[in-house]
Design brief:
Number of domains: 1
Strand content: 35-45%
Distance between the termini: 81 Å
Mean pLDDT: 88
Number of strands: 21
Structural class: mainly beta
Shape: globular
Radius of gyration: 22 Å
Low-confidence stretches: 1-25, 275-282
Length: 313
């Protein structure tokens, strides 16, 4: 009986130590752990709405597995529309415990910007008007993101890039702009280990025939369902809701789809309607290329170059 009691105590002690190790393993500030470098950046996908000249957010805190990422010095207010086509803004860099983590959290101030005046999250419109982006009546928004391959190797460097997809994050109704619902906003963000991603760059050769810009959407191979994607999904009626990312063409028809995890993809092109308030079936374009646009292989650290032509379906 005594031996069994001692064995039980040892078992309990072992489990307690094991549990403590797990907790420490997720602590970016663990003083006893080997160190690696973590950098966090942010990028953006375009917004659908016409007349929007800027989309500003104010980040007050960045967390890793619930612990404050001290490499970020906030609050910071910045224009997401300036961060398209692979452009990023670095939010901070810090030496952290070498380990594998699960969650990156961004905390936004809805009411106040970095200077302490309001609002903290807003759009600017043609003519200079500023409109606050409301968020379910709250003054803050905390968004948990699950980066793929969130590992910090010992003595290594890892950059996590957050893609804040404005097209999925902001809705317009009766002329007023607002953030989408809380659950929808969480799905509007993704985060990737930059070193594990690749890029698709392309050009629409006959772009001049369109008469306006186009939006290029990238999906994982075999996941595009036109009957669903061209119609609004969810309570905020988000179109092309399941796209991994999107890019608006420049004046010459060039586009960049950046920070794509290694995988096979397909792309689709849509021409925004004149009002810019929604993309629909009549604007979905037929695309052709010398490569299979429904099986584009993207590898880490590589760039795929595409040349394509479009016609209205």
């Amino acid at each position: 009986m005594k031996n069994r009691f001692i064995a039980a105590l040892c078992s309990i002690a072992f489990l307690a130590c094991e549990s403590d190790d797990v907790q420490k393993g997720n602590d970016i500030d663990d003083p006893n752990a080997a160190k690696g470098s973590l950098s966090v950046s942010i990028t953006d996908a375009p917004i659908d709405q016409a007349g929007v000249t800027g989309a500003f957010i104010t980040v007050t805190e960045v967390k890793v597995d619930g612990k404050t990422f001290s490499g970020f010095e906030g609050p910071k207010t910045f224009n997401l529309l300036e961060l398209q086509n692979g452009n990023t803004l670095n939010l901070g860099k810090q030496e952290v415990a070498a380990n594998t983590y699960s969650t990156l959290t961004l905390v936004l101030d809805i009411d106040k910007d970095a200077s302490g005046t309001g609002p903290g999250c807003y759009v600017t419109k043609t003519g200079g008007a500023k409109e606050k982006l409301e968020f379910a009546g709250k003054n803050t928004a905390s968004m948990d993101i699950k980066p793929s391959d969130f590992t910090i190797p010992e003595s290594g460097q890892t950059e996590i890039v957050v893609d804040f997809d404005l097209r999925k994050a902001i809705s317009q109704k009766d002329g007023d702009f607002t953030f989408v619902t809380e659950n929808e906003l969480k799905t509007a963000l993704r985060a990737e280990n930059k070193g594990k991603t690749g890029t698709i760059k392309g050009k629409i050769d006959n772009f001049a025939t369109l008469g306006s810009s186009a939006v290029v959407y990238v999906y994982k191979k075999g996941t595009f369902d036109s009957s669903k994607e061209i119609n609004g999904q969810g309570s905020s009626e988000i179109k092309f809701a399941n796209a991994v990312s999107s890019a608006k063409t420049d004046a010459s028809g060039n586009f960049t789809l950046a920070f794509l995890p290694s995988d096979e993809y397909e792309i689709h092109v849509d021409k925004p309607s004149g009002s810019g308030l929604g993309l629909g079936l009549n604007t979905l374009l037929q695309i052709s290329s010398s490569v299979d646009l429904k099986a584009i292989s993207v590898a880490a650290g590589a760039q795929v170059n595409l040349s394509l032509s479009v016609t209205a379906k």
